Structure formats: structure tokens, C-alpha cells
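Record pair follows.
FIRST:
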Amino acid sequence: MAWRCELTGKTRQIGNRVSHSNRKTKRRFLPNLLNVTLLSDALGRSVRLRISANALKSVDHRGGLDAFLLKAKDAELSPRVLELKRQVVKKRLAVA
């Protein structure tokens, strides 16, 4: 399972661990990923996602999963979430 947020595309970063003597060795900075279940209002069902804590705050701030997906760039989303976004857009157009 990749260390990648399905909504924002955040992934691991590479850096240096620096000792007191200033020796540098490689290390990884991993995103704070959470397994969450979010509710889609347009589809009327819940969706399980593996997202970062920062993305969870962004979803809450934008007013839910559907609002987040409508504003999100397609390049950042995982293929599974991209399909979810297409379903939400299709359902919204059918209602309007």
C-alpha cells in the first residue's frame, strides 16, 4: 500500500537525518494517513478512503466530500476517487 493520500496526492518526502556531528543519512517523512469513511450526499452512500489528516480538514472546511471533489484538480486524485468524482458530477447534472 503506497504512502499516498487519495484526495490531495500528498506522498512521502525524502530528507536527511542530521546528527550532532553533522553527519547526514537519508530518512523519509511520511504523511499522516487515516482510514476514514466519508458520506457522499449526491450518491447517497458512504465511501472508504485513505487520506491525510490535512485532507480531512480540507474536506470538512469545503463542506463535505462532494464539494471537495468538485473543486479538486483531476491530476491530484487517485483513479478510484476520480471515478467517484465523475459519478458525483453526473448525478448533479441529472438533478439540475
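SECOND:
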Amino acid sequence: MNDEQLLRYSRHILLPDIGIEGQQKLRDAHALIIGAGGLGSPAAMYLASSGVGTLTLCDGDTVDLTNLQRQIVHHTSSIGMAKVDSARTSLAEINPDVNVIALNERVDQARLLELVGRVDVVLDCSDNFATRYALNQACVQLNKPFVSGAATRFDGQVAVFDMRHPHSPCYHCLYPEQPDALETRCAVMGVFAPLVGIIGSIQAAEALKLLMGIGTLLCNRLLITDLLHMELRTVKLNKDPACLICGTPCT
């Protein structure tokens, strides 16, 4: 790192758990963020400001006026722009040292496998079960760590599924796929603006810790937040041996 980088990241470097070695790990890392909306905004901003070397943002939507109440990486002047292009502009202002790859597309399973295979950590900041299931399957297949977040109304949750470890559950263990499951979208139910900031920031924190190999992660645990009553609790997660995605096949 040069002198400017040492100064930019000095508050990280002062932390004994991080230091120069940990900061260099972030500079060498590549993170994939699926979704540049409510969760993806704070997640991307904190990964960029923290110095993760390469960020791939994937989202096929454009910025709408209704997004601006909570999707803080976008601005009024961004309305009508592709979300990934708007986000890339904002992140360059935060930290021009980070390489941001903006993919304005909706990805299928084959494309997800390609993208997941290139990165060190995946953050699911999407807003639908179909994407989460497809992303989970790709991470299981390629043994990639997967930081999952979700938020609606005043309620949110975060979990880390580290598929590098054989005893880790996957997202499908927690929520087995149900073809007739109903989506709860914020466009219908609403969402409290600070909630997505909190959940997305926790996703960023878990991803940063994972990349540096520090602290205790939300592996085998689900963090549940209720901001209306300001309650947080964790639930233990177990691997489902009969899981159709990560379970042990019968022989």
C-alpha cells in the first residue's frame, strides 16, 4: 500500500485484529453483490469505503423515485439510470481505489455460476426467493461463502452460509423451496428506511470479517431484528442432512 492508502485505511490498520495484513487481504479480495437496492446500497458503500479491491454489482433495474427513501447509494439525479451505473458513480466518489464492475443484467443459473466462481464472497442483497435459491445453489456447488440478508416492514434477518465447511447449512436448509410460496415485497408491504441500512451494514461487516479471517461470524446462526420494538435475537441453524441442495446423497 502507498502512503495515501495507509492514511485512508489508518483507522482499520490501528485495530489489532486487522492491521496492515488484514487491510491487504481486503485489497486483494473480490466480492459479488447481487442487488443494488436497499440492502446492496449500504453493503456496497461499506465494502468500498473499507477498501475491498474489486466489487461486482449485479442488478437489472433502474433507479425510481420510490427507491430514494432507502436506497442511499442513489440520488435524485440518478432517476432513470441503471442502478449499477448509479451505484458505481457513487462508490467512485467514496473510494476511487476500488474497481467496481457494474453488470446491468438479470442473471440465470449459468451466469451465476460464472460470476460466483470468480469471487471470494457473495452477498445476497436481492428481493426475491428465486434469486436467493439460484444463488445458494451456485455457492453450494462452488463452495463459496454466502452472506444472506432480507428486510421487510420493520423486520430483518442476516445469516452466513459458509459452504467451505461441510457441516454448514445452506439457505435451502433454512427455507426449503416451495413453488407456491408468496413473496412479501416492500412495494406492497412497505419497509422502514433505516432497517435496510442496518441489515445491509451487518452483511458488509460479516463479509469483511470473513475476507480477513477475523472474529466470529453468523455461521450456523440467524440474526433476527425487530426495529419497531428494538429487539434482536439469534436462532441456531443446523444442516439438514436431507437437504436437496447441500445434503449428503444416499448411496
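COMMENT: The two ends are 51 Å apart (CA to CA).
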